[in-house]
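[recover] target loaded
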């Protein structure tokens, strides 16, 4: 059973919402791939769009390789490779990185 990620303390968004960081494009941006994030020979692939919520200005994205779902603002793009998922705004000023950690490999 998957559990939600929770912050250690209350986060204050200052009244900002997904709409402040997105573009009302009904999820069209998630069909494009920008090769900027192909690093060290990684071949980025588009992530799967699970749902579009136009009323709240967000898209629900599934990073298949790391088995995580996140909500991103509309107008963003999302790609993934074998160990991480990347969501980023169209101007690349804002990014979300979700990295898979192999605890057995990392030695914990």
């Amino acid at each position: 059973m998957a559990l939600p990620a929770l912050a250690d303390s209350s986060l204050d968004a200052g009244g900002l919402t997904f709409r402040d960081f997105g573009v009302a494009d009904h999820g069209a941006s998630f069909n494009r791939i920008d090769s900027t994030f192909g690093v060290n020979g990684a071949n980025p692939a588009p992530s799967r769009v699970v749902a579009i919520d136009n009323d709240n200005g967000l898209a629900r994205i599934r990073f298949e390789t790391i088995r995580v779902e996140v909500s991103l603002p509309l107008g963003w793009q999302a790609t993934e490779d074998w160990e991480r998922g990347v969501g980023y705004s169209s101007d690349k000023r804002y990014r979300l990185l979700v990295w898979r950690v192999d605890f057995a490999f990392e030695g914990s």
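[recover] notes: Residues 83 and 105 are 13 Å apart (CA to CA).
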